[in-house]
Amino acid sequence: MLLITGGAGFIGSNFILDWLAHHDEPVTNLDALTYAGNLENLSDLRGDVRHRFIHGSVADAEAVADAFDRARPRAVIHFAAESHVDRSISGPKIFIETNVLGTATMLDAAKRYWESLPPSEKSEFRFINISTDEVYGFLTPDASPAVETTPFDPSSPYSASKAAADQLGRAYARTYGLPVITVRSTNNYGPRQYCEKLTPSVIQKALAREPIPIYGSGRQIRDWIHVSDFCRALERILERGAPGEIYNVGAENELANIDYVRRICGILDELAPHPEGSYADLIRHVADRPGHDVRYGLNPEKLRRTLGWKPKIHFYTGIRDTVDWYLDGLKKVI
Ligand code: NAD
Q1: In whole angstroms, what is the distance from residue 63 CA to residue 27 CA?
Q2: Which of 136, 158, 172, 279 is flagged as catalytic?
Q3: CB of 184 within 8 A of CB of 131?
Q4: H/E element holding 182?
Q5: Beta-carbon contacts of residue 83 (< 8 Å; ≥ 6 apart)
């Protein structure tokens, strides 16, 4: 049994669906169903006894202890988080509660559970702590992509809270020997993402013929990975990753935000052409986000070299399928 936190969100739901498509090992999904969590993401699993849902918060020690008791997991994948940078700027407190205290609560319960296991199960147990490229702070345009030993320099309350959560996991590995593996990922794109995030929000605004806002110049660079490739990396790390290690997961697919948004508009022009002209005409530059990092980029060489993982989905195919998926969903709503 796997214990997944945040499995009703974007990456967590994609992970659970992918996992159960290829394995019979059941999952227990602990999720607080915040505005970002949606059980509809898992509607394909209705009636599937391999998915067991527990409604509760990772910051609630009782709910977490109960989840460990009920799941008796061989591994935890801790996705649950407040994840939207803009929200962290207008209201940082919940980010500290969920990302820092929630991760501390999860680690503490995992430690107690792990200590109670017989030696054979104890050595197999894993706690995969999901972190982000944002903990490294921004890269200058000509800097090499971050490696696992690049120092932290977070810019937003979101990335600072994730940095704390990431380091707590590292501390539990070093201090108590808890088999924590830290995974730092770049920007994911793909189906089932909450509508406020860049990819779905551009598609929604474009189809509604509303202005598509772009922060500042739009020259900020992000490395985009398809969520399925990230889920495959997690499976590989779960299977073969070494306790105490850190793995960067990136696709070496760096794009300026403006180019990413133009690409989406170009696909929409093909799939849902509008008589008034290209969707890219709706792009409007707006005041930049405070503390907006100019570039993130990860070097995924360690994962490639030690675990033989590399992304499979070409960006042009992945983003086209993603746009198509959201278009399909919007047609159903209309
Ligand atoms: P998301 O916002 O789509 O989903 C978060 C999920 O966590 C939701 O289902 C929500 O209900 C749940 N949740 C929130 N607070 C909770 C709490 N207190 N207890 C239990 N559940 C709670 O996020 P996502 O994009 O799927 O990101 C998942 C993880 O991956 C996060 O840790 C995020 O920091 C990390 N990450 C995401 C990206 C990305 O591009 N999306 C990139 C790097 C790292």
Answers
A1: 16
A2: 158
A3: yes
A4: strand 180-185
A5: 9, 10, 36, 158
* Residue 158 bears catalytic tag: yes
CA-based radius of gyration for the chain? 20
Q: CA geometry: angle at 231 spanning 118 and 248, to 5°?
A: 85
Quote the pLDDT of residue 334. 44
Q: What average pLDDT does this structure show over 110-122?
A: 97
Strand residues in the chain grouped as ranges (E): 2-5, 27-31, 51-55, 75-78, 126-132, 180-185, 187-189, 212-215, 221-226, 246-249, 254-256, 283-286
Q: What is the pTM of this model?
A: 0.98
Six-digit token string for 317: 């195919």
Q: Which residues contact 120 (CB under 8 A, 6 or more apart)?
A: none
CA 126 to ligand 1 center in whole angstroms: 19
Let me know if 316 is a catalytic residue. no
Ligand 1 neighbours, Cβ below 6 Å, are 5-6, 8-12, 30-34, 36-37, 57-59, 79-83, 98, 102, 130, 132, 162, 185, 187-188, 194
Condensed to tens digits (0 to 9), the pLDDT of residues 208-238 reads 999 999 999 999 999 999 999 999 999 999 9
Q: Which phi and psi (to 5°) does residue 131 adopt?
A: -120, -170
The answer to whether 11 and 188 are in contact (CB under 8 A) is yes
DSSP lists the bridge partners of residue 212 as 283
Report the DSSP pairing between strands 221-226 and 254-256. antiparallel
Tokens of 218: 């739009």
Backbone angles phi, psi at 264, to 5 degrees: -60, -45
Determine how many CB atoms are found less than 10 A away from the CB of residue 123. Answer: 10
Q: Please state, in angstroms and rounded to a whole number, the distance separating the CA atoms of residues 178 and 115.
A: 9
Q: Relative to the CA of 84, which ligand 1 atom is closest?
A: 2
Does the pLDDT value for residue 97 go beyond 90? yes
How many angstroms from the chain centroid is the CA of residue 149?
21
